Amino acid sequence: MIPNRETIERLKETYPEGTRVELVYMSDNYAPPKGTQGTVTYVDDIGSLLINWDNGSRLSVLYGEDMVRIIKPKKG
User: Which residues touch 72 (CB under 8 Å, ≥6 apart)?
Assistant: First the structure.
């Protein structure tokens, strides 16, 4: 599923470069384990989140197929 331009712009606003995320689900045999954390480096023109995972993986999160959640920075 390729999102429309409006959705892609919303993804870029929600996941700017440097956003920390945690993997909830990825439909890839080579996916990092659930709960792996990483840093968003870019949102491409088809809505994929390019992520540098903390375990060294560089697999992208696909819009409409995979799921991550944003990790809120700890206060204090």
Answer: none
Name residue 42's beta-bridge partners. 50
Please give the Cα distance from 45 to 9 (Å, whole number). Answer: 9
pLDDT in tens, 21-30: 999 999 999 9
DSSP string, 2-68: PPPHHHHHHHHHHS-TT-EEEEEE---TTPPPTT-EEEEEEE-TTSPEEEEETTS--PPBPTTT-EE
pLDDT at 73: 74
pTM over the 0.85 mark: yes
Higher-confidence residue: 23 or 73? Answer: 23
